[in-house]
Amino acid sequence: MSGQQRRPADQTVAELISSDPHRAFDKAMEELQRGQDRLRSVRQKLEAQPIKVTSTDGMISITLDAAGEVTSIAFNTSKWRRMAPAELGSVLVQAISRAREQGRARLAEAYRPLLPEGLDPAKIMSGQLSVDGIFESARERSGQIMDAAKSAASQTRKG
Hints:
mainly alpha, Ybab, Chain: A, 2 domains, three-stranded antiparallel sheet, elongated
């Protein structure tokens, strides 16, 4: 629709703020609800599919829930009985680490489409994301929205 004005149903929240602040608020709430529904759906899918990893030699299977917590450890063979405690501990740690790594990768992929562009879920989970940058961006955006709303309100009062 280049050169033409978009229909109100097609307008973004930012476009509506100056022309119809009430509709902008309603649309923002609708978008928030859709986002919440998508998050709930992803969480339910993750919860329905636990992570199961077997050690490289097939001796141990580890199961994790959607939160990455170990829910079961199964010994598939009796080989573990002949292992030194340190060796068994090492096999357990390696299997649990692999399961958690797979769990983090699965979470990152599941939530990636729901995050704003430029936010990397892997960085979020690893603690490498700059929270200050996110909040500064949100503050700037909210300031722009408030300025547009104030401008629209003053134009409405004048008109």
